[in-house]
Amino acid sequence: MANKVKGFGPGAMIAAAFIGPGTVTTATLAGGNFGFTLLWAIGFSVIATLTLQEMTARLGAVAQVGLGEAIAARTNNTPLRWPAALLVIAAIVVGNAAYEAGNITGAGAGLPSWTLSAVNIWPLIIGSAAFFILNKQGSYFLEQTLGALVVAMALVFVGTALYLQPSVLAIAKGLFVPSLPENASLLILGIIGTTVVPYNLYLHASVIKRHSKEGMTLADARRDILVSVIGGGVITLCIAVTAAVVMHGAAIKTSSFTQLAPTLAPVLGSASPLVLGVGFFAAGLSSAITAPLAAAYAVTEVLNLDAKKRDRAFKWSWRLVLAFGVIVASLSLRPIELIVFAQFTNGILLPITAAFILWIANDQALLGKHRNTPFNNAMGLFVLTVTCALGLRSVLMATGWL
Question: Could you tell me the superkingdom of the organism this chain comes from (predicted)?
Fold first, then answer.
């Protein structure tokens, strides 16, 4: 029983990673500007995430390798070896460093302003908290902390949505009857893009690999990711539903998550800024922890370092990503060039990573009877098509064509 209890945690890390400031913001924009009509995009993003993360679960639990290790092994002694490694490092490390500033800034968005000589103090405090959690010996402490942050987000966002008593029929229609309102295409891709996160695929396989060596079975891993991703999807859904109930149809167009606080005053009273601030803090901090961690796994695995060098590179990779985010956030800078570069590289990496996972998940020598079924492949190809659209969108945005 103890092992089964310990088996829950990797999936919570994935949920904590994708419910960040970007997801909270896109869900708020979807509900506030389009009501319940875009809920189906959240549902699809959950299905897409489950499709890819289940494949990485098999990679970690059955083959006991991380995704970065698999890329290194598959491209070894080929012309793709270093281009693949450099692409992963550029997209995951540099991209995560750029987004880390947004995660840390987002964690403090709902907190009172606190500056000292033009330096924002909150990023330093948030970064210190993330450093302590990441530096703490023992992976279960990290997983339990992220699990607690997911619970905090659930209490805030799910509790608020339930209190508002939205129309169940309207929610069901939005979930199961897809529609494409005018000017909603980019937002739909944004919802999917903030949920199907490339770095989560590296993070998940690596964490599952470690757990499998401690007794976690494939069945445990599948149950864990199913519960966690669906739970994360429910939280995202509740954010959109809350925004739809209190903001849709208002004279002012929804442009920010912070607009929710005053509109919830009749429900939560003067506590509305504090309640929403707690939820946004949990979302930002959870992503601020997982982004450096995923970068460290990706770097050390794709470079195929020996044990001693891997430990050193792992430690300094997450520290550098975290430090960059803290510095940029504390100076209230907007790392536009790096964010554009992150969009470009992640836009390329997402479909490539999805294609690689789909390919390796069909490898009988590696996965045996647990290789992809025809249904897995059909779902994977469908998700791959969408990720290609996401990648094209990111590249076009980064190059100014969109």
Answer: Bacteria
Distance CA 117, CA 325 (A): 19
Which of 1.20.120.80, 1.10.1040.10, 3.20.20.60, 1.20.1740.10 would CATH assign to domain 2-398? 1.20.1740.10
Residue 384 to residue 401: CA distance in whole angstroms:
23
What pLDDT digit, counting tens, does each position of 322-341 carry?
Answer: 999 999 888 876 655 655 56
The answer to whether the CB of 156 falls within 8 A of the CB of 274 is: no
From residue 362, alpha-carbon distances to 328, 358, 371, 376 in Å are: 42, 7, 5, 9
Q: Which residues pair with 116 in a beta bridge?
A: 119
Question: Is the pTM value of this prediction over 0.90?
Answer: no
- The radius of gyration computed from the CA coordinates of the chain, to the nearest angstrom, equals 20
Model confidence over 67-101: pLDDT tens digits?
Answer: 888 888 888 888 888 888 888 887 788 778 888 88
